[in-house]
Amino acid sequence: MTAAHPTRTVIENCALATVDAHDTEHATGHLVIADEHIESVGPGPAPDGLTGVVRRVDATGHLATPGLVNTHHHFYQWLTRGLAQDAVLFDWLKALYPVWARIDEPMVYEAARASLAMMVRGGVTTAADHHYVFPRGAGDLLGAEIRAARELGVRFHPTRGSMDLGASDGGLPPDFAVETLDAALAATEEAIDTHHDPSPGSMLRVGVAPCSPFSVTTDLLREAAALARRKGVRLHTHGSETVEEERFCKERFGMGPTDYLDSTGWLGDDVWMAHCVHMDDADIAAFARTGTGVAHCPSSNARLAAGTAPVPALLAAGVPVGLGVDGTASNESGELHTELRNSLLVHRLAGGAEALTVRQVLRMATYGGARVLGRADELGSLEPGKLADLVLWRLDGLGHSTVADPVAALVLGPPAPVTLSLVHGRAVVEDGRLVTADEDAIARAARAEARRLERIAAGD
């Protein structure tokens, strides 16, 4: 609740893309932030007579949008960027599992700081992460991520992943990289009990996330779904990413990934899946009927030659769709704002010039992501009463100087500088730089941990 005498921030003279239900836009408008909530948004200057104003921002030359919502990531992969450059998913995983199985708490902390810093300075205000590699004796890996997110001031949705289907039992990961079913479930429940905050405006919500159909047992999928629903948290996994995954499911279970996941309780409006590239009409209808969400990761899918997800068809069917960076070992840029442009381009290559519009991809990156994470009542649009997670993009520089439509400039143009980014009403970026952390120090520390991991993996 907003205090009786709130402190206010006033932002004026900017273009506004509210991403509300009507896609309301203003060529010149204002925002008033009262504590952690949006109090007023509309055309022209802010209302007269406001009290408690602690900051006024003249945002001439800028576009204000909701903060970007990243719906899928693997922070730890920051340490293994640029490897297995020419591999498809299964070969890429086989090359990297032996390295990932040697991560520890300091490595994950620095990888999380770097991953979050890269996204936040590019307009992300809410980030989900899927961490599923837990080597024995490696320390508190999920806690390391949570600590990094808290320090940077980002709204965080970590998911406690797991793998219990090793190579000796027909799975893809090596046996030394998996947990037992009971250990995975116990650790997941402990993570929820320790960290999950279901309160309104929460900065931290934990999800349950067995890794994928080819790395977990059917028992783990079923019991993890039951655990999540008993605890009232969301479920996340990878689904239908590659033709190899589809072949694996048909050979092992006699059905495709969507039908298999449905048989284990993994479709529903409390579930979202990453990728969803290889889906037919029946799969799309099942997602639409159940409200299952999708994290669309176009750059990673292109990097690993996985294919192009049927996003236009998913959107037309009413499926919740958000954007995801995915791990930076398969999307080395580590940024979400570049995914807006990339998603538009790949779908137009696949489906023609009308496959997606610039406003559809902005909606996916904001409101769509909030919907996927179960936060659409609080996040994803600029409306009175919603949380003050927003971004001011500078569009009056050389790179955007001749694009009259500000949303087109943001999506089609070069990456726009972030002049101001607020999370929960607090500044996390000012003039393109993090205000909550030293970017150069983060880069140095992450580089050192990446080199340490490389030495350990090499047996030095």
Nutshell version of this structure?
By secondary structure, the chain is of the alpha/beta class. The chain has helices at residues 89-100, 105-120, 141-152, 181-195, 218-231, 243-253, 257-263, 281-290, 298-303, 311-316, 337-351, 358-372, 406-412, 439-457, and strands spanning 8-17, 25-34, 37-43, 53-58, 62-66, 68-70, 124-131, 155-162, 207-210, 235-239, 271-275, 293-296, 321-323, 390-394, 418-423, 426-430, 433-434.
List keywords for this structure.
nine-stranded mixed sheet, 460 residues
General description of the model:
With 460 residues, the protein is of the alpha/beta class. It is built from 14 helices and 17 strands. Strand 11, helix 8 and strand 12 form a beta-alpha-beta unit. Helix 2 packs across helix 14 and helix 11 packs across helix 12. The protein is globular and about 70 Å long.
Rg over alpha carbons: 21 Å
* Count of β-strands: 17
Approximate strand percentage? 15-25%
Large-scale geometry: globular
End-to-end Cα distance, whole Å, is 55 Å
Largest sheet: 9 strands, mixed
Q: Give the helix proportion (percent range).
A: 25-40%
Q: Which class do the helix and strand fractions yield?
A: alpha/beta
Put simply, the count of helices is 14
Q: Identify low-pLDDT runs.
A: none
The average pLDDT score comes to 96
Q: What's the multimeric state?
A: single chain
